[in-house]
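Per your request, structure below.
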């Protein structure tokens, strides 16, 4: 029996309808609290940064305030930087790394850039340690105008008037063992497709934009993170998660075509980080620190290689 046939919801080869989605939703369990883990740390930043609510999610009976943190005194003459985390709620270091960057490293860039950080884009999924939202939709394939994912739609509305103002956008993610054991099988079952297994890379890697790969920028991020945790090697096919490795620890995806968060802006420098938290060679603290190192290296490279004032 293959992994897809063993998935407990739906009929192999048949896309889910409303009953299957309802069954899937009924199985989701709240494991942690956004209001306890994330919101107090954001609120504690108000003395140093501007904190704003940019939207609200309503998945009855739950409501979630969507929060951003940005530098005070936004100045159109400065380059602007966007940092996003928690697009996939189960990718813990995306959220914790964004918060850690704000708490420990962001102040060094104040006065040099306009900084906007969205630490937890998908709080419902954060609480349930899941990739999808409550409608069984992947927010990170949904960053388009009129998106069906409310998480993505809220960010789209926020960023739309600023899209051409950003120098850099870095989106913080993880690749976990549950990608292979749960989320890819669930995706195949939901869409009525055959499961095509892919190996889980052991280590950190980044995803550049096929349309604007910026190889030196991606390598600067890899070099910084290599001081914190190990970099994922290519597999026997010279690939990471089915995509050709174009440089150590670097693959490319078409950001805008796929509706990825990293394609939200028209920034010349964009990347998606991928930490591997299930490695025997990495701790949660290292994963969070790797995200911070990636953000700092990305900003440093962008500032040093742009014509922005």
């Amino acid at each position: 029996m293959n992994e897809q046939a063993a998935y407990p919801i739906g009929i192999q080869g048949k896309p889910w309808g409303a009953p299957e989605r309802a069954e899937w939703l009924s199985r989701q369990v709240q494991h942690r609290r956004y209001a306890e883990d994330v919101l107090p740390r954001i609120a504690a930043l108000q003395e140093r940064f501007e904190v704003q609510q940019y939207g609200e999610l309503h998945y009855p009976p739950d409501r979630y305030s969507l929060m951003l943190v940005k530098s005070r005194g936004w100045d159109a003459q400065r380059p602007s930087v966007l940092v996003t985390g928690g697009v996939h709620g189960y990718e813990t270091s995306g959220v914790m790394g964004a918060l850690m960057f704000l708490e420990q490293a962001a102040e060094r860039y104040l006065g040099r850039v306009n900084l906007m950080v969205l630490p937890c884009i998908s709080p419902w999924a954060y609480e349930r340690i899941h990739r999808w939202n409550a409608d069984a939709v992947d927010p990170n394939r949904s960053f388009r105008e009129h998106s069906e994912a409310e998480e993505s739609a809220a960010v789209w509305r926020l960023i739309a008037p600023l899209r051409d103002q950003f120098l850099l956008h870095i989106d913080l993610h993880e690749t976990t063992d549950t990608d292979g054991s749960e989320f890819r099988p669930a995706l195949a079952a939901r869409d009525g497709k055959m499961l095509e297994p892919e190996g889980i890379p052991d280590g950190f890697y980044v995803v550049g934009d096929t349309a604007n790969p910026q190889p030196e920028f991606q390598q600067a991020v890899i070099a910084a993170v290599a001081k914190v945790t190990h970099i994922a090697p290519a597999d026997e096919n010279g690939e990471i998660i089915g995509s050709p490795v174009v440089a150590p620890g670097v693959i490319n995806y078409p950001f805008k075509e796929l509706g990825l968060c990293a394609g939200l802006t028209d920034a010349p420098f964009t990347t998606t980080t991928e930490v591997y938290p299930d490695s025997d060679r990495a701790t949660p603290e290292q994963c969070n620190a790797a995200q911070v190192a990636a953000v700092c290296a990305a900003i440093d490279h962008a500032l040093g290689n742009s014509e922005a004032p």
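The longest helix spans residues 284-304.

Regards,
D.
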